[in-house]
Amino acid sequence: MFAANAGLRRRPLLLILAGLLLSSTGCSNSPAPEDATSAAAGLGSPPATTGDRPRVALVMKSLANEFFASMAEGATAHAAQHVGDYELIVNGIQDETDLAGQVSLVEQMVAQQVAAIVIAPADSKALVPVLRKASAAGIVVVNIDNRLDADVLREQQVQIPFVGPDNRVGAKNVGLQLAKSLQAGDEIAILEGLETSFNGQQRKLGFTEAAAESGLKVVASQSAQWEMDVANQATAALLTAHPGLKGIMACNDSMALGALAAVRAAGRTDVRIAGFDNIGAVRQAILDGQILVTADQHGDQLAVYGIETALQLLDGAVAPGDGAAAQGTVRDRETAVDVITKETLSR
Fold it and tell me: Where do the domains of the chain lie, and which CATH numbers do they carry?
């Protein structure tokens, strides 16, 4: 699918891996403008291609979240398998709410003239203007994980293909699985992600639909900002306010782990917890019977699907810098999302 050139001089992949390590460990502060790409690629201000290889920037949310660390690892493994086809730059922000930091990373990638940006936006609306600038600069942009807001895309007059799962369907299936362990009329709460994130909105809708179909009573639905500590505090308050609470549907696994910590601290053994993402700590909690169910949207492959889409677009470009012109010719790509329970993990 990709054009290879065995005669190219190849920059060692260790530079990419070193950049990934630096990004993963340096989550206490946002990277300085010069460091974000030079750390990831071992470069100063390189051109859009290295030889005939396009440079593809992966811009994610917080690498402190295991889901995005896994995404970065999957992308890096793919780059190692296609070292002659493209060069990967890996970036992430310090936490899920660092919108300004993610906007800054995109601006840096534009200034460095990368060929493509594959982005998991922290906010479905706030990132659209800077991504429009990237597209206008001739950079291919592919949206993964969290879908950009359709209305804002129309307002900004930009087309950006989305590659990712149907979060609403995935969350509904997770919610229905949790409901099997409860009784009609039982009280549940939903821990939402960022209210401006499309995937968070869709997961909330899916959980709400599952609760309605199962006759469960949603007594509270509030944002825990995708964060474990925030979810811990929110769940502690919910358990006090609603002593009859029997279930918690968390819109990501970090929040599910925060909820679990609060449930344990309260000495409650009758509260069922659902998550979304299938990170390692939650898989273990499911095997241990502490969390009931989660969803696997195959984060290690999600960035790969986005990178492959970007390379397809670049492959159709007549000349470097005009790849964005072909962007509207590629349709959205829906990827798999699977329900994960103790039974599926034990197979």
Answer: 14-160+299-335 (3.40.50.2300), 167-297 (3.40.50.2300)
